[in-house]
Design goal:
Elements lengths: L6 H13 L3 E5 L17 H12 L5 E4 L1 H5 L2 H17 L3 E8 L3 H12 L8 E4 L5 H11 L4 E7 L6 H4 L9 H13 L9 E7 L4 H10 L3 E5 L9 H4 L10 E5 L1 H4 L10 H24 L1
Parallel strand pairs: 1-2, 1-8, 2-3, 3-4, 4-5, 5-6, 6-7, 7-8
Length: 293
């Protein structure tokens, strides 16, 4: 496959055009708490997640299942994950496995096959952790050559992310900036004529000033932005890493979509999620339009 032809990027671009959207549904079925069950009464895990995916499909370009919430539920959780991915494929949604994997080369190769292969959990793209270095990333890069995509953790949205990511690195600059520069290097050979590469990055919406710097360091990257909604980031915050023409970012929301029904009396989980997804898409589009002037 020629480096400039990448099925993941082509599918993502087509979905954005078809739906006029940059919204991504995070499929994060929370674990039970004293205040609220992770799965609504009367639902199985698979039925709940699939109802949300199907309801949001007209408004989102991709789903991003967070593997931890499925793995925590054992075999039943993994079976539900398989069903969610299979449904997303039928609905022509791009799938991003939020796995955050990265290990020694042979282990990374197994992870890459699990999440970027053709098996039950195979997706269009996967999130990866770069902290073991290039040899941990290369097996995933090999899958990019076969048409898949990566999102490398660069600057995350959690409150303590700066504890390590903001440390000063040798030669100047912060650690996350060094990783961003490396991501640009990994992705450069795969850049398409429009300038985008299937080697992308995760940049949290809760740090918009870092997002703008990240765009400078990674001009070719598609940036996956978590933090919208329940984590407190606004639509303008979430598109801070966009190019001047508004392209290059996709924005994830999880709990604010999946659990929208908890704030709407009488609405089913699917109905409430669809309304929330439509509102999210519109808010992001409005923010992009305003940013472009």
């Amino acid at each position: 496959m020629s480096p400039i032809h990448n099925r993941f990027l082509e599918r993502l671009s087509q979905a954005q055009r078809d739906k006029n959207s940059i919204a991504v549904l995070g499929v994060d079925p929370q674990l039970d708490t004293a205040a609220i069950p992770g799965v609504p009464p009367g639902y199985t895990l698979a039925r709940f997640c699939c109802e949300i995916v199907e309801a949001c499909a007209p408004h989102v370009i991709a789903i991003k299942p967070q593997l931890a919430f499925f793995e925590a539920r054992g075999l039943a959780g993994l079976e539900a994950l398989r069903e969610v991915i299979a449904l997303a494929r039928k609905l022509n949604l791009v799938t991003i496995a939020d796995a955050k994997r990265g290990d020694i080369g042979s282990t990374s190769a197994a992870y890459a096959e699990a999440f970027l292969g053709d098996g039950d959990f195979g997706c269009d793209a996967v999130t990866v952790n770069p902290y073991l270095g290039s040899d941990a990333i290369m097996p995933f890069i090999a899958k990019v050559k076969a048409g898949r995509g990566l999102f490398v953790l660069v600057k995350t949205s959690n409150p303590s992310s700066g504890e390590f990511q903001d440390l000063e690195a040798a030669g100047g600059g912060r650690l996350w900036e060094k990783i961003a520069a490396r991501v640009h290097g990994w992705g450069a050979e795969f850049a398409r004529p429009d300038g985008f590469s299937p080697v992308g990055a995760v940049i949290g919406a809760t740090y918009p000033e870092h997002a703008r710097r990240a765009r400078e360091l990674m001009p070719q990257a598609i940036i996956l932005v978590p933090g919208y909604g329940a984590q407190g980031a606004s639509a303008p915050d979430s598109i801070a890493a966009a190019r001047a023409d508004g392209s290059g970012v996709i924005v994830n929301a999880s709990r604010s979509l999946m659990y929208a029904y908890t704030g709407q009396v009488g609405a089913s989980p699917g109905e409430a999620a669809a309304q929330a997804a439509a509102s999210m898409r519109q808010a992001l589009n409005d923010a992009l339009l305003k940013a472009k002037g």
